Amino acid sequence: MGIFSRKDSTPQATAAPAAPAGTGLAALTGEYTIDPAHTSIGFTARHAMVTNVKGSFTEFTGSLHLDGENPAKSTATLDVVMDSIDTGNADRDTHLKSADFFKTDEFPTMTFRSTGAEFLGGDDYRITGDLSILGVTRPITIDLEFNGAATDPFGNQRVGFEGKAELLRSEWGLTWNAALETGGVLISDKIKLNFDVSAIKNA
Fold first, then answer.
1. Cβ atoms within 10 A of the Cβ of 144, count?
2. Checking CA distances to 61, which of 81, 94, 109, 199 falls within 20 to 30 Å?
3. HEC string of 44-88?
4. pLDDT tens across 55-76, in order?
């Protein structure tokens, strides 16, 4: 999942580069399970117009289907437990789980389901899909950087991807805010997402 960024409303049609030959990507074709112990899903929000608050989700499951010969056929899924949100402040986490934000009692899971993928050149890829929060599903685009593949000391075949993205939380109904006396608002509408994914090839 690399860079989550909002899909350009006026995309320019361009020919996708051919997948690089001789890089061994074809050998990576297969089904993979995301390893939560070595994967991070984080976010950053602007606070009080002057600083950033960072957080993460600590419980999630996901899978990848990689097609090394035809990256366009690759897919990804992700299910995130919203109660696992962690910003390093218990009171803030409780507020984020409340009806003002994620309503975790009613909507316990955030999901992503890919709908398309493309190879951009070098180690860069792009994946598009549907992100569901609070029962609202909207398209999102993720730009990924492939970090490589290796066999770990336990014999697991691993692949790694790194990326980031931006979205407007209001588009998913996350509109709670507070005005500042100096102007502006307490929490930015724009949220930055970042991912560091390690996935293990299924036996």
1. 25
2. 94
3. EEEECCCEEEEEEECCEEEEEEECCCCHHHCEEEEEEEHHHEECC
4. 999 999 999 999 988 989 999 9
Q: In CATH, what number does 3-8+19-201 get?
A: 2.40.128.110
Q: How far is C-alpha 166 from the geometric centre of its chain's CA atoms?
A: 10
What is the C-alpha end-to-end distance of the chain, expressed in Å? 22
The DSSP bridge pattern shows strands 30-34 and 60-66 to be antiparallel
**pTM score, whole prediction:** 0.86
pLDDT at 112 over 80: yes
Please give the share of the chain, as a percent, with pLDDT higher than 90. 80
The DSSP bridge partners found for residue 160 are: 148, 198
In three-state form (DSSP H/G/I as H, E/B as E, the rest C), the secondary structure along 150-161 is EECCCCCEEEEE
